[in-house]
Amino acid sequence: MMETNDNISVLISEERLNERIKEMGEEISRAYKGRELHLISILKGGVFFTCELAKRITVPVYVDFMSVSSYGSGKQTSGAVKIIKDLDESIDGMDVMVVEDIIDSGTTLSYLMDLLKQRRPASLALCTLLDKPERRLHEVKVDYTGFKVPDKFIVGYGLDYAQRYRNLPYIGVID
Ligand code: IMP
Ligand code: MG
Q1: For a Cys staple, 143 with which of 51, 125, 147, 173, CB 3.0–4.6 Å?
Q2: Is 104 a catalytic site residue?
Q3: Which of 66, 159, 165, 175 to mutate for ligand 1's pocket (most ligand atoms within 8 Å of CB)?
Q4: 167 belongs to a structural domain
Q5: Ligand 1 mean position to 97 CA, how many Å?
Q6: Which residue range forms the structural domain that includes residue 127?
Q7: What pLDDT band is residue 73 in, cutting at 50, 70 and 90?
Q8: Residue 107 in contact with residue 79, Cβ under 8 Å?
Q9: Distance CA 149, CA 63 (A)
């Protein structure tokens, strides 16, 4: 067990995560049979899930990374996001899937999906490990969801609290 200063209870165990990610990998492999898939992992949180998911996908996979942040501070943002790190390669004509850790207000992803659409991929899908639907402010079409979670502060499996706890092998809630 990792040493923590906060009280963290397990919401989704490592075993349940492994099972679900395997299922998602199988579903995605069936959907993209005969094609190649260009995964866009959203830094930093999405990276942990991307690695596990990619290992369960049986069609050829490319991986690229993007880092984005919301403009302004506080909970209500303008809806625009700033690109901290853009993709290394063009997605023109590719089957693209964005891989994210969690969709909360939807602000980041609704903006990002619109932006990526303008780069003319052959197809564009969104896959998230977690979804907090109660919190949605901006509509986003999610193609693959691992788990719906309650409106609590979640950590682990890429998700941080002040940059900590990303390396927890389970999904936890800070009490
Ligand atoms: P959105 O633009 O509000 O959907 O924000 C999504 C981003 O907020 C995610 O990529 C996370 O980095 C962060 N986030 C949202 N909810 C949580 C949480 O419960 N724990 C940790 N990070 C979160
Ligand atoms: Mg994130």
Answers
A1: 125
A2: yes
A3: 159
A4: no
A5: 19
A6: 14-151
A7: low
A8: yes
A9: 27
- 3-class DSSP state of 15: helix
Cis peptide before 44 (omega within 30 of 0): yes
What CATH number has the domain bearing residue 88?
3.40.50.2020
Query: Is the Cβ–Cβ distance between 42 and 113 less than 8 Å?
Result: no
Q: With contact defined as beta carbons under 8 Å apart, do 8 and 169 qualify? A: no
pLDDT tens per residue, range 101-152? 999 999 999 999 999 999 999 999 999 999 999 999 999 999 999 999 999 9
In this structure, is residue 169 part of a structural domain? no
**How is residue 156 annotated by DSSP?**
B
Instruction: Kindly state the tokens that stand for 57.
Output: 């996908």
Domain total of the chain? 1
The mean per-residue pLDDT over the stretch 29-37 comes to 98
* CA–CA dist 118, 136 (Å, integer): 23
Cβ pair 98, 125 in contact under 8 A? yes
Q: Identify the burial level of 129 via C-beta atoms within 10 angstroms of its C-beta, where 0-12 means exposed, 13-18 middle and 19 or more buried.
A: buried
Instruction: Report yes or no on 58 lying in a domain.
Output: yes
